[in-house]
Design brief:
By secondary structure, this protein is an alpha/beta fold. 23% of the residues lie in helices and 26% in strands. The chain has nine helices and 15 strands. Helix 5 packs across helix 7. The chain is globular. It starts with 7 loop residues before the first helix and ends with a helix. The relative contact order is 0.18. The model has no long low-confidence stretch (mean pLDDT 94). It holds the Pfam family CoA_trans. Keywords: Transferase. InterPro entries: 3-oxoacid_CoA-transf_A, CoA_trans_fam_I, NagB/RpiA_transferase-like. GO terms for molecular function: transferase activity.
Length: 257
């Protein structure tokens, strides 16, 4: 099945108001910026987003966040995103912060058809006991707090029950993909993109290089095409447009000596 869609705008045309989205990327690496911009252009809002972070430097999900299009974020990192922090503390945004490894496994489990699993991460903290502020009231008080989760002992160790995550759509970016939706991810962009893709009921992938079926060695495929419904081929300019979050420059060798 040829899953290639002509444009990013066409690929996200049926994402409705209030949809839930799993979005790939780690920092600014592997973020599906073209699909996010296309979604921004559609004007839909009230979105529930599941992603490691919510964009930075006016890039990625920060575009939707700044426009007030996101109602809820499930993630593990606020970082240096000041607008994210402002909206959260002002009570404009509901935020569920969870351990990063738990987030990764919740996405994978949802995509694998596993409704829930036990993990030791978070036992003895508000992650398990409840009370984490999901939404503030804008005056410093907590308007909505996380509920307690089931804790069970296995072989003398306590574990907390976590639910798998499924979303209406998933947006991901791959370095290479074929027309059947088989994808390859580059380095750190492999952290969350495959997991987000698995969790989406409809997964849309933007690919930097589109190849024909059979051109990717099956042993090199990071995500099989069964998890992908739509593929958008990026232009060379779009593929090359990659931002750097923090630029560091090494001292000249003579100074290091």
């Amino acid at each position: 099945m040829d899953k290639v869609v002509a444009t990013a705008v066409e690929a996200v045309a049926d994402v409705p108001e209030g949809a839930s989205l799993a979005v790939g990327g780690f920092g600014l690496s592997g973020v599906p910026n073209v699909l996010i911009q296309a979604l921004y252009g559609r004007g839909v809002g009230g979105l529930s987003v599941v992603s490691n972070n919510c964009g930075a430097m006016e890039s990625g999900l920060a575009v939707l966040l700044a426009a007030g299009r996101i109602a809820r974020v499930t993630g593990s990192y606020i970082g240096a995103n000041k607008e994210f922090a402002r909206q959260y503390l002002a009570g404009e945004l509901e935020v569920e912060l969870i351990p990063q490894g738990t987030l990764a496994e919740r996405l994978r489990a949802g995509g694998a058809g596993i409704p829930a699993f036990y993990t030791p991460a978070g036992v003895g903290t508000q992650v398990a006991e409840g009370g984490l502020p999901w939404r503030y009231d804008g005056s410093g008080g907590v308007a909505l707090a996380s509920p307690p989760k089931e804790v069970r002992e296995f072989d003398g160790t306590e574990y907390v029950l976590e639910r798998g995550i499924r979303t209406d759509f998933a947006l991901v970016r791959a370095v290479k993909g074929d027309r059947h939706g088989n994808l390859v991810f580059n380095k750190s962009s492999r952290n969350f993109n495959p997991l987000a893709a698995m969790a989406g009921r409809v997964t849309i992938a933007e690919v930097e290089e589109l190849v024909e079926p059979g051109e990717i060695d099956p042993d090199a495929v990071h995500l099989p095409g069964i998890f992908v419904q739509r593929v958008v081929a990026l232009s060379p300019e779009q593929a090359a447009d990659k931002k750097i979050e923090k630029i560091t420059v090494s001292k000249p060798e003579e100074e290091r000596a």
